């Protein structure tokens, strides 16, 4: 999993990459991910949280973007 926070095109925070391994042949539905974020140093404005979850074996992945407002 990789993630970052952007106000527009600039990256202001990178979330530490995380790796989750599974045994071959096992099936997994959902994998909840938690990562603490402190927004106290962010200026007011609209930011985007961008997350990528990649399957290194299957060469597939999911990308998600969520916009949020800091006041």
Question: What do you see in this structure?
Answer:
- The chain contains no helices and 4 strands.
- It is elongated.
- It has a 4-stranded antiparallel sheet, with no helix packed on it.
- By secondary structure, the chain is an all-beta fold.
- The protein starts with a strand and ends with a strand.
- It has a domain at 1-11 and 43-71.
- It has strands spanning 2-6, 13-15, 45-55, 60-70.
Residue windows where pLDDT falls under 50 for at least 5 positions: none
Structural class: mainly beta
C-alpha end-to-end distance: 28 Å
Overall pLDDT, averaged? 86
Q: C-alpha Rg, in Å?
A: 15 Å
Q: How many helices?
A: 0
Record field, number of beta strands: 4
Main sheet overview: 4 strands, antiparallel
Query: Judging from the principal axes of the Cα atoms, what is the shape?
Result: elongated
Order of helices and strands: EEEE
What is the element layout, followed by pairings?
Blueprint: E1 2-6, E2 13-15, E3 45-55, E4 60-70
Antiparallel strand pairs: 1-2, 1-3, 3-4
Brief overview:
The protein is mostly beta strands and 71 residues long. Helix content is 0%, strand content 42%. The protein has a four-stranded antiparallel beta sheet with strand order 2-1-3-4, with no helix packed on it.
């Amino acid at each position: 999993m990789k993630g970052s926070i952007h106000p527009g095109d600039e990256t202001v925070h990178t979330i530490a990459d995380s790796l989750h391994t599974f045994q071959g042949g096992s099936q997994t539905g959902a994998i909840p991910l938690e990562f603490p974020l402190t927004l106290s140093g962010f200026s007011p404005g609209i930011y985007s949280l961008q997350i990528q979850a990649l399957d290194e074996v299957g060469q597939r992945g999911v990308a998600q973007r969520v916009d949020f407002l800091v006041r």
